[in-house]
Amino acid sequence: MVMKGNRSAGFIVYFYAALSSMAISAEQPNMVVVLVDDHAYEAISAYESHLKDYAQTPTIDRLFHEGMRFDNMTVPNSICSPSRAAILTGQFSHVNGVLRLNGRINEDSPQYPAELQKLGYQTFLVGKWHLENSPKGYDKHMTVKGQGAYFDPQLSGSEGSWKREGYSTDVYTDIALDWLESRDRKKPFLLSLQFKAPHHDYGHAERYNNLLAGVTIPEPPTLYEDVRREDSNLKKLFIRDSAFHMLHSGRRSYYERHQNDQVPDAMGQHDAKSDRDRIRAAYQHQIHKYIRCIRGNDDNLKRVLGSLEAQGILDDTVVIYTSDQGYWLGQHGLYDKRLILESSVRTPFLIRYPRMIMPASVNADLTINIDVAPTLLELAGAEIPPTMQGRSLVPLLKGEPVPPNWRTSQLYTYWGGTPKHYGVRDKRFTYVESDLFSAELFDRKLDPQQQHNVAGNLEYATVLRDMKAELRKQIENCGIGVEELPGANVEADRKVIAGQRAAKGGRGVGEGKEATKTAGESGKERVGTSRE
């Protein structure tokens, strides 16, 4: 736990005034969870990245200045549906059953809204859902199918079905504010507000058309990195079999998809014969649209906080802003997510609750978004279901030392497409295995951009051995069997999980010693052809 010091005395005054005026009680806090799609932590100014003067998010930053920012939160499966299921259930993908997009949560998996509902919370969900199950544990819900549209979204749910005119982020917030006004004010509540933005292709409201127009936005250090000639098969296979490189994708690249976009989002002038200039133009196109998109998120969060303040309940409410995963904004020449690498696997997580959290706190412990569900349940005074695999963050929110037996690394699994892979990330190293290539190792302390796979370097032999052992340990701890690992049995993985889970008490087949074998131990490099 890292508590950021040297803050102004005003924050200390604010904190203790909040404590004295509210005298921490046993009352259940209200909860507002704003879950958005593909918001990179680098595009939140509170995270102080190279974009901090351009991707300005004053309202999201407020959650940090009056609460806590998490710097080491990751997702266990960096794609929309699996990550959302992990947040809801507090379980890894192989346990909750959602391995890929549009998955269905297992019926026996707990979901934190349902647990809160049992305690008497009134619960409401609006926005993107992106799971095959109907929402569980919500008194009322209005969601869109799949991604939904950026404009004039078609909503359906417990309140019927209708199309609402306008920009989706505005529409979802309008509905949420109406519910906040009409709720039963004698009961605690959970509001789940879920934006599509800033998912590709970064639709933004017209009022942001001129935001940063004509401004050259700083590039990430690895924008022009040629991953085709690197020593990482993870990256090579990814760009070969996906569309997610600015220029060099095996499928339709970002440049090809957007070179004919029209004003106000037209691609800027560039030399169409120069690879470097096409990448530059593609990045500037992406980052301008992306920042315009997130400005809408920030402005609408401001409306929500304003409503809570007007009702006099802001300080009685846990407010969270997070994303279903991170996102590449030109790093390695990429956009999108999916891999275990930093900008993809790290997700922003900011929380405000002055009854408990010191303002401007920074947490650097190894956290995963499966920790969200048990955290909210503990805050509400609920019993945490034993099948949840996450850990409550409440001790960290209080500024206490990390609890005993806290995780020593973060497990990652990806079934979605080539390359299927799995691995672990600790505070310094990222280790990756796959059935398609030999193990890879990245030293983020000496190589923070993860440009160099050092698995073959003799000086890292001990680290490689230790990280492999750490992966075996995490595989065993989370109860994933050899036949369940990504790539081990592509045709049968979903059948195995759906059909054999109950017999193992919800923890996974192949526990214990059997789980120390993996599909990637052969070390043979093979090339896959699957496409998502």
UniProtKB/TrEMBL annotation:
Residues 501-532 are annotated as: Disordered. Residues 29-382 form the Sulfatase N-terminal domain. CDD domains: G6S_like. It comes from the Bacteria. It is an enzyme of class 3 (hydrolase). Keywords: Glycoprotein, Hydrolase, Signal. Residues 510-532 have a biased composition (Basic and acidic residues). GO terms for molecular function: arylsulfatase activity. It holds the Pfam family Sulfatase. Belongs to the sulfatase family. This is Arylsulfatase. It comes from Novipirellula artificiosorum.
